[in-house]
Amino acid sequence: MSNQPGSPTAAEPDQPDTAEPADQAPPSAAPGRPTGAPGTGVLALLAVGWLAAMLWSTREAINSAAAGVTAISLSAFALPGVISAALVAGAAVALAVAEPLARRSDRATLRFVGAVGTGLLVGLGTAVAVNLTYADNATTNTIAGTSAAAAIIGGALAGARNAAPVGAIVAASLGTLLFVVAFSRARDPLFDLFGADGSQASLFDAAKWVSRTESLLAGLLAGLLAFAYLTWARRRAVRRDPATPALRWPAYLLAGAGPGLLLLLAEVVIRIGGRTLLDLAGALSEADAVAQTSLGISRLDNGIWVLFVGALTALVAFGRTLGPTPRDDDEPEPAGDATGR
Fold it and tell me: In sequence order, which residues have a C-beta less than 8 Å from that of residue 17 and are 6 or more positions away?
């Protein structure tokens, strides 16, 4: 008896094979995870240590001054350094916590919530430390509250899905903050170099050039550190998973500009959260008002310089690693026979 067409035993020799197409990629060739951020634990320790050092130096400066107007003035001068340190510390610690979460789960919401929660804990810890160690007054509450807000914002920034640029921003920002402190030792020689002779006009011009030199060097350092960190992160990621997608130029651009963006963000936090303290310091005298205005403009100018110089430096460094693009006319011609035909 012949097989019926609908019978399960019917053989169809001309039926096409139902195997998977040859060009379908195996599961092992699927794209890898985004480049992770290496060394997050070390960055977190350095950032917390820097925040503790800034809080301690601010406390010592305030306690060494006479009570009243001098303490208010010193608190206003020290506030930008504390806010910048809290912003970087919140981002660094949150990144150290969010990175293991990202390796265990692909859920971006879980990573972001963990980063924000960590930033909140860093902010609360900073505020408690300030209230326990500083004198109990209005300036103390301003420093504590503004520092806590900065740490929370930093934690939220660390919740980005691609952690490598965030790690580069944290590393470059720490290097920039350390450089600014070290550069203070070279200010007096640079004032003499730029022609400060004791007159008010010469001092103003010299201060402008010293500030621009500091910003230029800080931007160069930020861009180089960001590029070096991303290069390190990329090599580690490829060793662990060759399918890890390559970082493109926007990642390097953002990482190089990151320290300047954090400085500008810190200035926004200072002018909103620390407005009361800045107003008190500016109301002490006409000279204090001029000083606070000049410092605010200088901080904005410094942040803009670091942003653009850092972004350009990182982008140029990345561009130098790119090889020439192959052209179609560079393909080898087919070999001819022995007669050259």
Answer: none
Q: Which pLDDT score, from 0 to 100, does residue 2 have?
A: 46
Helix (H, G, I), strand (E, B) or coil at 17: coil
Q: How far is CA 267 from CA 54, 82, 153, 177, in A?
A: 17, 11, 13, 14
Backbone phi and psi for residue 338, each to the nearest 5 degrees, phi listed first = -65, -25
pLDDT in tens, 81-113: 999 999 999 999 999 988 777 666 566 677 888
d(CA 195, CA 212): 15
- Name the amino acid, one letter, at 239: R
Distance of CA 35 to the CA centre of its chain: 16
Separation of alpha carbons 253 and 325, rounded Å: 21
- Dist CA 260 CA 74 (whole Å): 25
Residue spans of alpha helices (H) in 184-199: 187-193
Report pLDDT digits (tens) over 105-118: 566 677 888 889 99
Block residue for tokens 């794209």:
31
118 close to 52: Cβ distance less than 8 angstroms: no
Q: How far is CA 278 from CA 117, 131, 152, 281, in A?
A: 29, 19, 22, 5
Identity of residue 299:
R
pLDDT at 66 (0 to 100):
53
Locus of tokens 């020689």: 189
Q: What is the pTM of this model?
A: 0.80
Instruction: Express the helix, strand and coil content of the chain in percent, nearest 5 each.
Output: 75, 0, 25
What is the enclosing helix (H) or strand (E) of 43? Answer: helix 40-64
Q: How far apart are CA 102 and CA 106, in angstroms?
A: 6
Q: How far apart are CA 49 and CA 86, in angstroms?
A: 11
Nearest residue to 28 via CA among 225, 210, 243, 261: 243
Tell how many helices (H) and how many strands (E) occur in the chain: 10, 0
Measured distance between the N- and C-terminal CA atoms of the chain, rounded to whole angstroms: 63
